[in-house]
């Protein structure tokens, strides 16, 4: 199974947890591709690419489970600079979110790909989801929990997808030029959620699957992937809650979730090793 993550040097905690959760719930080979870049937002911030030693650590980790597993890093700074999403560099969401839109430019990226945000944790086996026939579609995804109510890019029916979990038909995306069009739109039109908005506006063939494949609100028994996005709570007062998987105490105390304790325990054991780029013993 081919997996894609994207981000900068701050993605390593989330990626470690997400990969550990995948390793727990499938025995099939995992071919993991990681896109990163050095990005300078003038007058605002510098985003530093993920380092090869951390990828080497993760590569050793996955190979302990299956020698056919691997993690490969691609620094796409030149690609990003050549087609920079100029008008969307200063949005609420970081430019790192748009790196997935350059995957069609990487020749090593295979024809079928499961993209995951680094705050997505696998809760159940996902083999059937990955192996479904997507030959007719560019993208398979789930409705955005909140966005489905407000954004309607394909008529008035609910169709607005969340971009945190996407099954991508890269062969069709390359043939149709979907990501090429998305990059151009991100370079020329300001959007609140640029990469997600561009995908939703421009995708022409897609399939929506049940929310259990990208649960953005509350963990259920049948949840396959849980996406730790910002959510709203209305009682006793209206408030926003953002808790990420690597904030272990907050996952326990605020979200009352203990389903991932074995994964989070392994994460806490391994994270220091990863930061120092050493791996000791098995997992």
Automatic annotation (TrEMBL):
Database matches in Gene3D superfamilies: Spore Coat Polysaccharide Biosynthesis Protein SpsA, Chain A (3.90.550.10)
InterPro entries: Glyco_trans_8, Nucleotide-diphossugar_trans
GO molecular-function terms, A-Z: glycosyltransferase activity
Pfam family, one: Glyco_transf_8
Name this polypeptide is given: Glycosyltransferase family 8 protein
Species, as recorded: Candidatus Paralactobacillus gallistercoris
